[in-house]
């Protein structure tokens, strides 16, 4: 089964949300208290997804707000350097700062992220800075859930979704839940549900769908039966190394196995998965194959130090799919 996109547009994908900085522990396999050096990369889930998509050959654009400082300029320069259109990345004029994510790699299984996100520039994106002329030039609008956490970014995203729907741009919602940016789970649930119901494709982990539903121990079947009463045609629910499931409105269910890999750290899995999954869908591959591309891309990125710079090429993904063993489902 394939997802149909509008055929010709200048951009394949425009992402909206945060473009920030990751500071990844250079000395890993130890707690952050003992980490003395960190390496700087561009980060932020939607920026990572746009970078991954661009490296795979998609024409990508970005809507976001950057701090007027060295970090903001580094991000813009890096993203432009990998081929992303940065014309709609506006620069904050009110002294807000770039969001930072320090990563702790205690062991391959035990990773965490310490985020500095108070008053960050990306959450000050204003609805007036979201342009219909820009959005209508794309086939996909990729929305990051974190951009809904606070106003005015929240309204900017809601406007972008409306404009996408008005212009036949497919809305892909990556739940991307980061608890500390939200006032409460009740609030998250309200905005996640609102945007998920309007999206064409919703992607998230099982835990993130539980946040959307404001419950614990939800089931994939209940999630999709609710969402298929609304706009989504496809819902992708990820279960870490245990793989992922794509549910189509037609009733078909597709399974994506993870690939065995030498894990350095677990973060970056979701963003690399999303970029390669969307690349495959937009390149006309069926959902089964798109799941393989997503899983293979994640297997590569979790074996490397960064999320953004580690994003693979199509050749690397296809080679891994051809050669690598799949993780059995019950692991
Ligand atoms: N330890 C791992 N080894 C190999 N692949 C992994 C591993 N963890 C995650 N993946 C792959 O990355 C995908 C997304 O991972 P997941 O942890 O569910 O998302 P997120 O990073 O958004 O929390 C999974 O569906 C799987 O294919
Ligand atoms: O999203 C962020 O702000 C931090 C990311 O840049 C970081 O690389 C990360 O956590 C990615 O993890 P993922 O969501 O598992 O892909």
TrEMBL record:
Gene3D superfamilies xref list: 3.40.1190.20, putative 5-dehydro-2- deoxygluconokinase
* Pathway it works in: Polyol metabolism; myo-inositol degradation into acetyl-CoA; acetyl-CoA from myo-inositol: step 5/7
- Record-level GO BP terms: inositol catabolic process
Q: Which reaction does it catalyse?
A: 5-dehydro-2-deoxy-D-gluconate + ATP = 6-phospho-5-dehydro-2-deoxy-D-gluconate + ADP + H(+)
- Signal peptide extent: none
Please tell me whether the keyword Glycosyltransferase is annotated for this protein.
no
GO: which molecular function terms? 5-dehydro-2-deoxygluconokinase activity; ATP binding
Q: State which Enzyme Commission number(s) the record gives.
A: 2.7.1.92
Give yes or no: UniProt keyword Nucleotidyltransferase: no
Highest taxon above the source species = Bacteria
- Give the InterPro entries listed for this entry: Carboh/pur_kinase_PfkB_CS, DKG_kinase_firmi, Myo_inos_IolC, Myo_inos_IolC-like_sf, PfkB_Carbo_kinase, PfkB_dom, Ribokinase-like
Which PROSITE patterns does this one have? Answer: PFKB_KINASES_2 (PS00584)
Query: What are the UniProt keywords, alphabetically?
Result: ATP-binding, Kinase, Nucleotide-binding, Transferase
Enumerate the spans annotated as Carbohydrate kinase PfkB domain: 12-313
**Free-text function comment from the UniProt entry:** Catalyzes the phosphorylation of 5-dehydro-2-deoxy-D-gluconate (2-deoxy-5-keto-D-gluconate or DKG) to 6-phospho-5-dehydro-2-deoxy-D-gluconate (DKGP).
Q: Which HAMAP family match?
A: IolC
Q: Provide the family line.
A: Belongs to the carbohydrate kinase PfkB family.
What is the name of the protein in this document?
Answer: 5-dehydro-2-deoxygluconokinase
């Amino acid at each position: 089964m394939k997802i149909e996109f509008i055929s010709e547009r200048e951009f394949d994908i425009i992402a909206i949300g945060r473009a920030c900085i990751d500071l990844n522990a250079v000395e890993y396999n130890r707690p952050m208290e003992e980490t003395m050096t960190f390496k700087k990369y561009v980060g932020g889930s939607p920026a990572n997804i746009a970078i991954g998509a661009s490296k795979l050959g998609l024409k990508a654009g970005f809507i976001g707000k950057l701090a007027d400082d060295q970090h903001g300029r580094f991000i813009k320069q890096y993203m432009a350097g990998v081929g992303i259109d940065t014309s709609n990345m506006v620069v904050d004029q009110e002294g807000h700062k770039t969001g930072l994510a320090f990563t702790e790699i205690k062991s391959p299984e035990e990773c965490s992220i310490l985020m500095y996100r108070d008053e960050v520039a990306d959450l000050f994106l204003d609805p007036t800075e979201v342009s219909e002329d820009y959005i209508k030039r794309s086939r996909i609008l990729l929305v990051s859930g974190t951009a809904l956490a606070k106003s005015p970014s929240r309204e900017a995203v809601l406007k972008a979704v409306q404009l996408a729907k008005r212009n036949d741009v497919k809305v892909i919602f990556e739940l991307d839940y980061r608890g500390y940016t939200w006032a409460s789970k009740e609030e998250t649930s309200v905005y996640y549900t609102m945007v998920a119901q309007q999206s064409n494709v919703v992607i998230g982990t099982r835990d993130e769908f539980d946040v959307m539903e404001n419950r614990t121990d939800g089931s994939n079947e209940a999630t999709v039966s609710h969402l298929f009463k609304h706009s989504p045609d496809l819902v992708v629910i990820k279960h870490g190394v245990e793989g992922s499931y794509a549910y189509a409105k037609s009733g078909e269910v597709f399974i994506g196995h993870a690939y065995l890999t030498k894990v350095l750290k677990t973060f970056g899995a979701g963003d690399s998965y999303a970029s390669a999954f969307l690349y495959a869908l937009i390149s006309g591959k069926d959902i089964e194959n798109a799941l393989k591309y997503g899983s293979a891309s994640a297997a590569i990125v979790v074996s490397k130090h960064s999320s953004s710079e580690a994003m693979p090429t199509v050749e690397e993904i296809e080679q891994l799919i051809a050669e690598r063993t799949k993780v059995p489902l019950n692991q």
